[in-house]
Each structure stands twice: as structure tokens, then as C-alpha cells.
Automatic annotation (TrEMBL):
Substrate binds at F74, G75, R76, D150. One of its GO terms (biological process) is DNA alkylation repair. Belongs to the alkB family. Residues 128-247 form the Fe2OG dioxygenase domain. 2-oxoglutarate binds at N135, Y137, H147, H226, R238, T242, R244. PANTHER family: ALPHA-KETOGLUTARATE-DEPENDENT DIOXYGENASE ALKB HOMOLOG 2 (PTHR31573), DNA OXIDATIVE DEMETHYLASE ALKBH2 (PTHR31573:SF1). GO terms for molecular function: broad specificity oxidative DNA demethylase activity; cytosine C-5 DNA demethylase activity; ferrous iron binding. Residues 176-205 are annotated as: Disordered. It comes from Capsicum baccatum. This is Alpha-ketoglutarate-dependent dioxygenase alkB-like protein 2.
């Protein structure tokens, strides 16, 4: 594992991919999935190499001050079904989700996270993430239910970069129900309005591999929900990092 800069990280950039025949680069595994109506997912299955990813998993498991808070879902209090921790740059508006306001730790406390952040920025030109929500799934009973990361402090079209280490888990996306009442005629042009009749699938599934990076962009948080469901057979540790920009 490297600290201080991202020199030791093996990564591919969002510009790469579309590999030429015979190319052995990991960037061959970059996929762009157009969800329609201005929503997009990018998936790089080997963003950080295998061995380095195990080092990160071990470091994060041991050094992050994990917490399993009580949150409110549909008006009821429950223990969050996974551990989490929040890291953010100083002076940002506080994150509150499901009635819970996590303490914001400093990037300076976890130098390897700064290395990863630098690598993610390099891979996604134009991105400037300033906060990170970490999740730890101890086994297949830990999960995150259907939700969108659509808190106001991320703005209308947040880019969210999600890096996974350890046990492979399924990541599901499903289209949110269209709010346009049936039969109601819409007049004039409505830019980026959702359309049910564009023929594109309204569900997607990804197996998030050890060292993979999945990026959600555009209107994905407005128009889609995502989840990592319980999976009895996924019985080992997984740690996921979601990088976000608080505006
Ligand atoms: O663990 C994952 O892959 C997703 C986590 C997530 O959606 C979140 O933290 O908002
Ligand atoms: Mn999420």
C-alpha cells in the first residue's frame, strides 16, 4: 500500500477502455451503461489491483472507527444493517441521512483514503469529491435497502464513485416509478423528463468485484434506486467506499 501520493496504485481512467484487440490492460473491463434520459453508470471491474485491494481491506477494517447507528426508516427506528463511517473535508454542510447525522472525520486521519481519493480523481477527470461514506458488510445478512443518494447537499445531478473491497456482492438498480399521472398530456418540451417508453431496461444488476469502481452519474439519483440486498452465501467481509461531492 502506498501513502502520500497515488504512484503505487494501478488504475484506469474513464477516458481509457474500448481496448484494442490483444491489449492486456485492466481497462478492457470498463463498461459504460446508458440508463437513458441522462443517467449513466460506469463500471471498472479491476480499478485497483487484486493484492493492493486486500491491503486496503485490511487497513480499513482495522483502522476505521466503524459505527452501527440507529436510523429512522419509514418512521421507525432501527439499527442500520451495516457498519459505517463518514469522512469529509472541513467546513462542509453536515450530512444527515435517515434522521442520523454522522460525525465527519478528517481525511488527514486516514492517509490511504487520500491516496484512493487521488486515484479516483485521476480516473474521473473533472471530478472533485470532498466526502466519503464508508460501509462495512460483515456477512450476507448485512445490506443496504433500496434508496437514492439524493440528499439536497449533493445537488440535482450528483456523481457518486463507489469502490468495493472483499466479498463480491450484488448491486441492483431499479427505475423509480414515473410520477407523471397516467393519461395526463404533457405539452411543450420537458428536458430530461423520464420516459417509460424508451425501450430500455428498468432494472440492472452488477456483481461488484474486489477492487472495482462503479460510478453513478447524471440523473441516476433522481430517476433510479439502488440496493445491495442480503445474500446468505456472501458470508465474508466487504467494505465499500462511496465518494461524493457536497456542494
Ligand atoms: O455498498 C454499496 O455498494 C452501496 C452503498 C451505498 O449505496 C451507499 O452508501 O449509499
Ligand atoms: Mn447509495
Amino acid at each position: 500500500m502506498t501513502t502520500g501520493d497515488s504512484g503505487g496504485l494501478h488504475l484506469c481512467t474513464a477516458e481509457q477502455g474500448g481496448a484494442t484487440a490483444g491489449e492486456k490492460s485492466d481497462c478492457r473491463t470498463r463498461r459504460v451503461i446508458e440508463l437513458g434520459n441522462g443517467s449513466e453508470v460506469i463500471y471498472m471491474s479491476r480499478f485497483i489491483n487484486y493484492d493492493e485491494s486486500w491491503d486496503y481491506l485490511e487497513y480499513l477494517n482495522k483502522n476505521i472507527p466503524w459505527n452501527r447507528p440507529t436510523i429512522r426508516v419509514f418512521g421507525r427506528s432501527c439499527v442500520q444493517p451495516r457498519d459505517s463511517c463518514y469522512v469529509a473535508s472541513e467546513g462542509l454542510p453536515q450530512l444527515v441521512y435517515s434522521g442520523y447525522q454522522p460525525h465527519a472525520y478528517s481525511w488527514d486521519e486516514f492517509p490511504p483514503l487520500k491516496d484512493i481519493l487521488t486515484a479516483v480523481h485521476k480516473a474521473l477527470p473533472g471530478s472533485r469529491f470532498n466526502s466519503l461514506l464508508l460501509n462495512r458488510y460483515k456477512g450476507g445478512d448485512d445490506y443496504v435497502g433500496w434508496h437514492a443518494d439524493d440528499e439536497k447537499l449533493y445537488g440535482p445531478t450528483p456523481e457518486i464513485a463507489s469502490l468495493s473491497f472483499g466479498c463480491e456482492r450484488e448491486f441492483l438498480l431499479k427505475k423509480r416509478p414515473d410520477k407523471t399521472p397516467r393519461g395526463k398530456k404533457t405539452s411543450g418540451e420537458q428536458p430530461k423528463k423520464r420516459s417509460k417508453k424508451d425501450g430500455s431496461p428498468d432494472k440492472h444488476s452488477f456483481v461488484l468485484k474486489h477492487g472495482s469502481l462503479l460510478v453513478m452519474r447524471g440523473y441516476t439519483q433522481r430517476d433510479w434506486l439502488h440496493s445491495v440486498p442480503k445474500r446468505v452465501k456472501a458470508d465474508s467481509l466487504r467494505i465499500n467506499l462511496t465518494f461524493r461531492l457536497v456542494l
